[in-house]
Design brief:
disordered C terminus; 306 residues; five-stranded parallel beta sheet; 10 helices; three-stranded parallel beta sheet
């Protein structure tokens, strides 16, 4: 598939899986660095211009996460917002200084599927520049807000490669009301012929003919821990692939300020089992081996041409 094409033929993607060559002894851990008031579910209630008026808790929560990773000798990839990096540069530098990968989550958590191509390109380039200037390291990875690269805006992968990113982790092969492409590959793949650019989907388990979400987020808070653990074990055993897990700093913060006027469904999704997440995360870090995305997957290599 060439870059000039629309990239509509999702069925072709599985022909170019990423070959790991023994790299998959650990799983990939990732953190989407955003504050509790910046989530997609609250955008109708917390306009971006009001963000500075809200108590920020992201620095404290990231410090707790860094301590958890240090205690378990885990490394991770932190997908950070440019907006936060400008305001909390020391937080970003701590992430890098403790051996973790810094990656991009866009500038201000705009959904990729709600931006035109020019706006998307401007946003990711701005965020990448801010993060690199603050941290003094190259930023190779990107994750779209709310996994908002879908079959309707696959041009975004093309734009990310052109903006200098080596990989994206912006897709989720499930049915969901806000995102998802169930027909896409379940594991890392090269979306373009002759290119080393990689797309790395969030982990799912294949069960009863369906892709079961098994990579974190609200599903990690909803399901009993042992069920989630078995799903990850099944992926390792049956698919012989590393798992990619993600979570947010606000998910370990049950005492975060509540946003008023939020519908019941949104409240349930956001606040469900926050008081249990840190303990579950601690167990997860001890039950499996975890490393940065760029330590698990070959990035920038020649395998895309094989």
């Amino acid at each position: 598939m060439s870059r000039a094409e629309s990239i509509d033929a999702i069925a072709e993607w599985h022909r170019r899986p990423v070959k790991l060559d023994g790299r998959a002894t650990a799983n990939a851990m990732s953190v989407d660095v955003e504050d509790y008031f910046q989530v997609e579910a609250f955008f109708d209630h917390v306009p971006r211009q009001d963000w500075p008026q809200h108590e920020s808790r992201v620095e404290h929560n990231v410090d707790r996460i860094l301590a958890l990773f240090s205690d378990t000798k885990a490394t991770a990839t932190f997908f950070a917002l440019g907006w936060l990096a400008e305001r909390y540069p020391q937080m970003v530098r701590r992430i890098v200084s403790e051996g973790h990968e810094l990656a991009c989550h866009g500038y201000a958590h705009f959904r990729a599927d709600q931006q035109s191509r020019p706006l998307f390109v401007a946003d990711v380039r701005r965020a990448k520049r801010v993060l690199e200037d603050v941290a003094g390291v190259a930023v190779k990875g990107y994750r779209a807000a709310s996994f908002s690269i879908t079959r309707h805006n696959l041009w975004a992968l093309n734009a990310l490669e052109e903006a200098g990113f080596a990989y994206s982790s912006s897709t989720f092969p499930i049915h969901h009301d806000n995102y998802g492409m169930p027909a896409q590959p379940r594991f890392a793949f090269y979306p373009f012929e002759g290119s080393s650019f990689v797309e790395i989907p969030i982990t799912t388990r294949r069960l009863f003919g369906q892709n079961v979400p098994s990579g974190g987020g609200g599903y990690f808070r909803l399901l009993p821990y042992e069920v989630f653990k078995r799903n990850l074990q099944a992926v390792r055993r049956s698919d012989n692939q590393p798992c990619l897990f993600y979570f947010h700093p606000w998910e370990i913060d049950p005492n975060q300020p509540r946003i008023s006027g939020v519908p019941l469904r949104t409240r349930v999704r956001h606040y469900l089992n926050l008081h249990r997440t840190e303990d579950r995360l601690s167990r997860l870090l001890r039950d499996f081996r975890w490393a940065r995305i760029d330590e698990i997957y070959p990035l920038g290599g020649a395998q895309a041409r094989e």
